[in-house]
Amino acid sequence: MHMEWTALGDVTTVSDADGTHALGVAQAGLCFLACAAFVAYGIYRIVPQFH
């Protein structure tokens, strides 16, 4: 089986054509920051040296 690696770039170009890729990356970034904030707050609440 032969893989055509140049065609992979064509697929990503087509999937980014509608502009939803940037929106998805922004949403993922916001979710990551929210989760990181919850984890940091939980660590702050547990570790007594931070008080």
- What is the structural class? mainly alpha
**Helix coverage percent:** over 70%
Give the biggest beta sheet. Answer: none
Rg measurement, Å: 20 Å
Total count of strands: 0
Polypeptide structure, described:
By secondary structure, the protein is mainly α. It contains 2 helices and no strands. It has helices at 5-15, 20-46. It is elongated, with a radius of gyration of 20 Å.
Structural topology:
Blueprint: H1 5-15, H2 20-46
Task: Give a quick rundown of the structure.
By secondary structure, the chain is mainly α. The chain is 75% helix and 0% strand.
List keywords for this structure.
mainly alpha
